[in-house]
Design a protein that fits this description.
Layout (H helix, E strand, L loop, with lengths): L1 H29 L1 H7 L2 H21 L7 H7 L5 H25 L1 H8 L3 H26 L3 H25 L5 H27 L5 H11 L3 H22 L1 H38 L2 H24 L1 H8 L11 H23 L3 H26 L2 H25 L7 H20 L4 H33 L2
Length: about 475
Amino acid sequence: MERNETNKIALKAGSWYIISNFLLKGIAIITTPIFTRLLNPDAFGISNTYTSWLSILTIVGTLDVVSCIQIARHDIDDNDMNSFISSVLSLSTLALAILYIFVKIFSDIIVSFMAIPSLLIDIMFLEVLFTNAFTILQTKHRAYFRYREFVILSAIVSILSPILSILLITFQESDLYYGKIIGNALPRIIISVFIFIYIFKKGRCFFNKEFWKYALLIALPLIPHHLSGSLLSSFDRVMINKFDGASKAGLYSLAYNYSSILGIAWTSLNSAWVPWFYTKMKEDSIEDIRRYVKPYIVVFSTLYMGALIVGPEAIKVFGPKEYWESMWVIPPVLLAIFFQFVYSLYVNIEFYLKKTKYIAYATIAAAALNVLLNSIFIPKYGYIAAAYTTLIGYFIMLILHYNLSKKFDSRDLFNKPFLFSWIVSIIGITLFIEFFYTSILIRYLILAIYLFVIIYKYKNSIISLISNLRRKQT
């Protein structure tokens, strides 16, 4: 009974997390049309470049100690957990302070390399310093299934940030990106200051050799993986800003922000698929996996087709005319997310078999290739080249994870003939649509034909898949 109760709590917490994550990220997407009309592409590009650097600094500057919290939940006694949390917070704070001193010593070189104003770098460090406490506490809440606290804190920040950003931008006459960046950071910093104090007051532990050693042994090996993931998903905007200007980074960011809607959909679907998949793997029900992977792929592909076909119209809603040329970024970025969806099928095998170090190897290789290709092709062909280098990076990830998973489990879990033919079909349809991307009539005709075929051929299997996933979670 106790185990069933725990499972119910975990399921409820997980469901709340998925829903809140979708809604809160949706707020950022919904407010994009407002910011593109308040900010020109140059200011919009700088604010998004700042966000990209922020994600990198958060991983490196804090030693990624937040990665150890979920595992520590099962290894550290509950009575010592508050002390552990305050100890790792002081560890990450010390590491960030040392890095900040290093940056100030080599200020001119760092500012030139990051290609953003020096004041923004100071704001960035301040934001990471305090919001690190916010993230650590949020992760602790997730580890203990305290979903209400997670949702409430996230909702407050997600609602206040765009409101304050809009007000600050409106009150400024120049350098409007400061209004966007400070407005976005300030609510999180203010709340995090109180959380920062709360964690130390509750834990009363600034240094514990065993806690620091435990945190570093788990977190440090994950830095290359998480950093590579961040480079693969966001460093293109940094490189566009450096090689092609802030304005082009703004155009690229708008198209990428729109495309990220499909990424949110993938995350939500994967959260439902993974528990079911792991159960079937444990039961050795390979035929069930082969049966239901088809409608699962079809469902995501339908979302992909919808996002691809309405892309040009979405860009016109998301931004004024000066942003419209960015619609050409959408097809390759969306196709990259489709590859991400496909390779996640094989990544799930690696996670199930606990071969996680190989996931890091693949991510690092793809990120390194992406940075190399960006440094070659962005200066030569401009910001749209970054979309295709991202596509290549995720395609390489697909190849690597397919081969790695086959090394550990040679069974054909996902109906390879169907999957590979489907991938080829999606690529072909994408190229055809891209060729006629300015023709609204042809695009929507293709969507109508696609939906007719899917409903006619896969309606029953999709309904069966949904029924199965829901049954497994009850």
